[in-house]
Design brief:
It comes from Pendulispora brunnea. InterPro entries: ExbD. Pfam families: ExbD (PF02472). The protein is α/β, with parallel strands linked by helices and about 180 residues long. The protein is built from 5 helices and 7 strands. The strands form 2 sheets. A 5-stranded mixed β-sheet has the order 4-3-2-5-6, covered by helices on one side. The protein has a two-stranded parallel sheet with strand order 1-7. Strand 5, helix 5 and strand 6 form a beta-alpha-beta unit. The longest helix has 18 residues. It is elongated. The mean pLDDT is about 85.
Length: about 180
């Protein structure tokens, strides 16, 4: 029995060209790539669990910077309505500037309630837009106030009254919910 030099011998007898190229080491990468299904399934499960834990059906509204909301035990879910925020002395409607409260704060001792004209015009415009988009339906007249707990009461009253004059008599206040206690 002859003695051969050591080396690769497997598949050398197959008369196909592509097999010979693979055996000699000149072939290209395989077209089929191996995927690790275990790690993909793990990633998918972690992603689904994360999304389910962070999902909120009530919808969350971002709080304006510089607004520290008051806390309350009895709360309702957020509703779809124009959002009037008072941050410092600035008044915002759905994030757009709608006047300021300096005139009210500087109206002399004691400060007096005043209508905020820019806020009034923006809310009135939103009411007209709503009525044009939904002809024949009754306007709900709901507005949500997002007001810092340090804002003076006269400013809150002025914003409340301006909203009511603009056709929004149903006013809700945005608050931070605290757990209910048994008394």
């Amino acid at each position: 029995m002859p003695v051969h030099n050591p080396g690769r011998r497997l598949m050398h007898a197959v008369p196909l060209r592509f097999v010979q190229k693979k055996v000699q080491g000149f072939g290209h990468r395989s077209i089929n790539a191996n995927l690790s299904l275990t790690s993909m399934i793990d990633f998918l499960v972690v992603t689904v669990v994360f999304l389910l834990m962070t999902f909120s059906a009530s919808g969350e509204t971002p709080v304006q910077k510089g607004v520290n909301l008051p806390k309350a035990e009895n709360t309702l879910d957020m509703i779809d309505a124009p959002l009037v925020a008072v941050a410092g002395s600035q008044v915002l409607v759905d994030g757009a500037p709608a006047g300021n409260t300096r005139a009210i704060e500087e109206s002399g001792p004691p400060p007096r309630m005043q209508r905020i004209d820019e806020l009034y015009n923006m809310l009135k415009g939103k009411r007209e837009t709503w009525k044009q988009a939904r002809p024949g339906k009754e306007f709900p007249g709901v507005v949500v106030l997002q007001i810092d707990q340090e804002v003076p009461a006269v400013v809150v009253k002025s914003v409340f009254q301006t909203a009511a004059f603009a056709g929004y008599p149903n006013v809700s206040f945005m608050v931070n919910m605290i757990p209910k206690t048994d008394h």
